[in-house]
Write a structure and sequence with these properties.
It is a single chain. A hairpin with a 4-residue loop joins strand 5 and strand 6. By secondary structure, the chain is α+β, with helices and mostly antiparallel strands. A 5-stranded mixed β-sheet has the order 3-2-1-4-8. It has helices at 39-55, 93-101, 110-121; strands spanning 3-9, 13-20, 25-32, 62-69, 73-74, 79-83, 88-91, 105-109, 130-135, 139-144. Helix content is 26%, strand content 40%.
């Protein structure tokens, strides 16, 4: 058994969640992003959310962290290439978080992550083809075709 932390990095808020192996939500936390205060402040705020959630999972170990973020990013290298609503370019966020927490960290584009979630757990359940569009601080989308992103 174990728990997993998910973090949604947005232009206006950082939302975190802890789930168990059964996909049940154990805890949630949301704080303002404060992107206007700069990259270093936002990274510290992400770490703060993760620390807060880890403190609530003492009975089961945290096995990993998933992060979704805006803008073009590289899933392979863990780098946010360009997030205009954050003012970030070429930020190696995965290595920063792995170094801090000693856990595996994966990253996905926020709209793609939302599309996957909607397909498997939301209104898209039962379909193998769908398009997900998000309009928030930015605009994005994800396409599921034949059950795959």
């Amino acid at each position: 058994m174990g728990t997993y932390i998910g973090v949604d990095l947005g232009g206006t808020k950082i939302a975190g969640i802890v789930i168990n192996d059964r996909g049940e939500t154990l805890s949630e936390e949301t704080i303002p992003t404060l992107a206007e205060e700069g990259q270093e402040v936002v990274i510290e705020r992400i770490k703060s959310v993760i620390r807060g959630l880890m403190a609530k999972t003492e009975e089961e170990p945290v096995r990993g962290i998933g992060l979704c973020a805006p803008g073009p990013l590289s899933v392979q290298t863990g780098v946010i290439i360009d997030a205009p609503n954050l003012g970030w370019k070429n930020v190696p966020i995965v290595s920063i978080l792995e170094k801090k927490f000693g856990l595996p960290v994966v990253i996905e584009n926020d709209a793609n992550a939302a599309a996957i979630g909607e397909c498997y757990y939301g209104a898209g359940q039962g379909t193998t083809d769908m398009i997900y569009i998000t309009v928030s601080t930015g605009i994005g989308g994800g396409i599921i075709s034949r059950g795959e992103l």
